[in-house]
From TrEMBL:
Recorded family membership: Belongs to the cytochrome P450 family.
Alphabetically ordered keywords of this record: Heme, Iron, Metal-binding, Monooxygenase, Oxidoreductase
Gene3D superfamilies: Cytochrome P450
A molecular function GO annotation: linalool 8-monooxygenase activity
Protein name according to UniProt: Linalool 8-monooxygenase
EC number: 1.14.14.84
Highest taxon of source: Bacteria
Keyword Translocase: no
Length: 411
């Protein structure tokens, strides 16, 4: 399809609500079937819904750059931009917004610090933390799981990994929320000003974190990066701080979403929950299927550096592109009965929820480990867990991170 003609006449553009993630899947399905690439007038982005097209864009990083991955979805007011420029935020990126050769250089170094050995070392602490949190509500016969388990546990884990003291967790988590709202939501200028000031404080905290490690190394991820720097590997203090800045956000918000979505879906389609209670060996596969069926990161962004055709659709040079991973993951061309949650699905691992190609998510093993431990403990300790009837699920207003704000359960 040639889009040299006006791309703005799309019925789907009117039906697609990029910030309302309450139930986007019917529109996603319609897009795959009727208009697999369409233009969102609200965002000014071309929206891609089919698996093969999304995967091809992810893998072709030379043409479809990640430079806009951390760019707010709408133009930033001058006053907000000034705060961010003065605070050193503009142009800041960890790995998701970088391209080779910088991406290759930094990812290699980060991979040397973010090792399976470090994850194995964390596992007993993660399990102890999960047990401690579950035991606090286990005898109450009801809980709000976001507040009492899945919101804080991933934060404590990633902060453990990065060496953030427990007493600083609440503040850092608040800064991370401001970062999400500024980068992925549609907010007023007044709200953006508040979030921009918070994000600058967040960035200052990350720089100070690196400065402290330069004075005294510890047993944590930023210390490992500083050690590698001291051994002669090419990574700057700013780049180390940027990795912390991104990990402190991505490493817990997405895992919170994964667990909130996952537990909700397992209890909603309860036969799946009962299978896990009977056979814990099904849990790793169930996690892959949850990532496919209802991913924590439901969309991501790319920009076309030149005119390019994907799946018969020609994108103009400079086009901003929104990839609907939550749609591609249900594409019937890849996943039979894609709209059905099946925890024994053979090809669930082929989901797009961690990206594909050079930007595949480094934190995927940690997120899956945390959720595996939580499911193991919940299914054995509270096998008769069920959703509290008649509750309404709300989702944060943003383009990319989908998870219930609250999750009431009883047993």
């Amino acid at each position: 399809m040639d889009i040299s003609a006006c791309p703005y006449h799309s019925q789907l553009s009117k039906e697609f609500k990029p910030f309302d993630l309450t139930d986007p899947f019917p529109v996603y399905k319609k897009a795959r079937e009727e208009e697999p690439v369409f233009y969102s007038e609200e965002l000014g982005y071309y929206v891609v819904s089919r698996y093969a097209d999304i995967q091809e864009i992810f893998r072709n990083w030379q043409v479809f750059t990640s430079e806009n991955a951390q760019t707010p979805p709408k133009p930033v007011p001058d006053a907000v931009r000034q705060i961010m420029v003065e605070g050193g935020i503009v142009g800041l990126s960890g790995l998701s917004g970088r391209i080779p050769p910088d991406h290759t250089r930094i990812r290699r170094i980060v991979t040397m610090a973010f090792t399976p050995k470090r994850l194995r070392k964390l596992e007993p602490d993660i399990r102890a933390l999960a047990i401690e949190m579950i035991e606090k509500f286990q005898d109450k016969k009801h809980a709000e799981l976001v507040k009492e388990l899945v919101y804080d546990l991933p934060a404590f884990v990633i902060f453990m990994l990065l060496g953030v003291p427990k007493e600083e967790v609440t503040q850092v988590k608040a800064w991370a929320i401001s970062r999400m709202m500024l980068t992925f939501s549609d907010t007023s200028e007044e709200e953006q000003l508040f979030h921009a000031r918070q994000v600058v404080k967040y960035w200052d905290y990350c720089k100070e974190m690196v400065a402290r490690r330069k004075q005294q190394l510890g047993d944590d991820f930023p210390s490992d990066l500083v050690r590698l720097q001291q051994e002669g590997y090419e990574i700057s203090d700013r780049e180390i701080a940027a990795m912390c800045y991104n990990q402190l956000f991505a490493g817990h918000e997405t895992t919170t979403s994964l667990m909130g979505n996952g537990i909700r879906e397992l209890l909603k389609y309860r036969h799946n929950w009962e299978k896990l209670c009977a056979d814990a060996s099904l849990i790793p596969g169930a996690i892959e299927e949850i990532l496919r069926f209802n991913p924590s990161v439901i969309t991501w962004r790319r920009k076309a550096t030149e005119e390019a055709t994907i799946g018969g659709f020609t994108f103009p040079k400079g086009a901003d592109i929104l990839l609907l991973m939550g749609s591609g993951n249900r594409d019937e061309a890849v996943f039979e009965n894609g709209e059905t949650l099946d925890i024994e699905r053979k090809n669930a691992k082929e989901h797009l929820s961690f990206g594909s190609g050079i930007h595949y998510c480094l934190g995927a093993p940690l997120a899956k480990l945390e959720f595996k431990i939580v499911l193991e403990e919940l299914t054995q300790r509270i096998p008769n867990l069920q959703l509290t009837p008649d509750q309404t699920f709300e989702f944060a207003y943003n383009t990319s991170f989908r998870a219930p704000v609250a999750l009431e359960v009883e047993w």
